[in-house]
Design goal:
The chain has 481 residues and is of the alpha+beta class. Helices cover 19% and strands 30% of the residues. The strands form 9 sheets. A 4-stranded antiparallel β-sheet has the order 1-3-4-11, with no helix packed on it.
């Protein structure tokens, strides 16, 4: 900026009068002194810029010398030495202030002591420096493996699966044997389903001749019982006997030619994650033996109690206690259950105090296989049924008609009802509690065998029997499709 312009700007800034000769002279003196300082600073900046450029050039030359194997060579006669001598001659310090950095560089042999002189000058000017790879191999190489790991190191392995994961239960179609076939209509073909600790059968099958003493179908491995089991079923509106063997055969042992319902047969298959408890016999009862289980009981993950075993008493059997279930394995109300007793349907009662009691039947063997009910404190939600057609609760220590569904989709019925007539609907199950196909179940009705049908629309009907009380205890089916 011209001096006249600077002078005019100062006069205007301080509000001075240009007619004041003394003031004007003083300002000119001040401005002249400042102008001299500015010129000196400009010269210093020019020198520094020149030094920077020379030092950069010197450093590049030194790097090329190092890469060419001339480390430690003389600087005499080259621009590097001249530049450094000029810096020293100007009184500038060449002492290295980054002692830790330079010591590390020397000890690792990346640079030598001659290079340090150059590095010190570069650091003094604030010029950033970097290094190419040395031509000589360091005596100690760094390791690529860390000496310690973080305490929360990530893992590539998946977390272990929960031990109580639910299984997806599906129905499996049975492969018929011995000429057996599906009955048809609104009844299911023969099929089976395993839901955790429970195996269920379903279907209405038929054989015109030679039915008794023949195998209906075979269950595959993983779907078989550990012992031979005997079940009472409905066979041509009467009682039939089906045996299921450890080898998988489902066998009509007693009955007549025609249709047989395997709906409602249930048992705990081999390999199920349950603990069996041996019963302590009373009243002279004992195990039948052979390939049948002794009397025993267990409880599954839903709180369902299952019984098994073939027991025997030659005389005085009816009206006696077979054994007593302990606390934690007892029903909330008294139950009347249908069982097979010497090839006929008979009645076993289980009391809230745990007594398992042969109430009606004959002397000889009695099968406890397939008996199942919910323990009194099981975490299921029972729903009271709405009676139809004059049906009502029997009363006493028996339950009213009710139903529940566990997490596996298995619906259970309970209760002792009376007041209705054969052929009438007792109550209707709501949507979500109905079977996929119509099912036929054997029940105790006035101390005799009777037939209850449950239809896909939810109707629970006494189809065959007498006009008397009907026990719904122990009936169950799956809602899975």
């Amino acid at each position: 900026m011209p001096r006249s312009a600077i002078f005019a700007a100062a006069i205007a800034f301080f509000g001075l009068s240009t007619s004041n000769a003394e003031t004007t002279a003083a300002c000119e003196g001040m401005l002249a002194a400042h102008a001299a300082k500015i010129e000196s600073l400009e010269a210093t900046i020019s020198n520094l810029r020149h030094d920077h450029e020379s030092l950069h050039e010197a450093f590049e030359l030194r790097l090329r010398a190092l890469e060419g194997g001339a480390a430690g060579g003389s600087f005499e006669g080259n621009p590097v030495e001249r530049s450094l001598e000029g810096a020293a001659g100007a009184g500038r310090s060449t002492t290295i202030s980054h002692k830790a950095v330079t010591t590390e560089l020397v000890s690792s042999r990346v640079v030598n002591t001659t290079d340090i002189y150059l590095l010190g000058t570069l650091y003094w000017h604030g010029i950033p420096v970097g290094f190419n790879s040395p031509t000589t191999t360091p005596t100690s190489l760094p390791t690529l493996t860390p000496t310690s790991f973080p305490t929360l190191k990530p893992t590539l392995e998946p977390s272990p699966l929960p031990t109580n994961m639910p299984t997806i239960s599906i129905w499996h179609s049975a492969s018929y044997s011995s000429g057996w076939a599906t009955y048809g209509g609104d009844f299911s073909p023969a099929r089976y389903l395993k839901d955790n600790s429970c195996l269920l059968l379903d279907g209405l099958v038929t054989l015109g001749s030679g039915a008794v003493g023949s195998t209906l179908f075979y269950l595959p491995e993983g779907f078989r019982p550990p012992f031979r089991m005997i079940f009472a079923i409905m066979n041509q509106n009467s009682v039939g006997r089906v045996d299921i063997y450890p080898g998988g055969a489902v066998y009509l042992n007693a009955g007549t030619n025609g249709w047989s319902s395997v709906a409602g047969i249930r048992f705990v298959p081999v390999g199920a994650a349950v603990v069996w408890n041996s019963a302590s016999y009373q009243s002279g009862w004992s195990s039948y033996g052979g390939d049948f289980a002794p009397a025993r009981y267990t409880k599954d993950e839903h709180g369902a109690i299952s019984l098994d075993g073939l027991v025997s008493l030659a005389s005085g059997a009816v009206g006696t206690v077979i054994f007593t279930l302990p606390a934690g394995y007892r029903p909330q109300y008294r139950l009347i259950l249908s069982v097979c007793n010497a090839n006929s349907l008979s009645r076993v009662d289980i009391h809230p105090a745990g007594q398992v009691y042969l109430h009606v039947g004959v002397n000889g063997w009695t099968s406890l296989a397939g008996i199942s009910f919910m323990e009194s404190s099981a975490s299921v939600s029972w729903i009271s049924a709405s009676y139809q057609n004059g049906w009502a609760t029997y009363g006493g220590d028996y339950s009213h008609a009710r139903y529940c569904k566990d997490e596996g989709g298995i619906v259970r019925l309970d209760g002792l009802v009376t007041g209705g007539s054969v052929g009438s609907t007792i109550f209707t199950l709501p949507v979500g509690y109905r079977p996929q196909y119509r099912i036929i179940l054997a029940v105790v009705n006035g101390n005799s065998a009777a037939r209850v049908d449950i239809r896909t629309a939810g109707l629970v009907t006494l189809n065959v029997g007498v006009d008397s009380w009907v026990s719904l205890a122990g009936l169950s089916f799956s809602t899975r499709t």
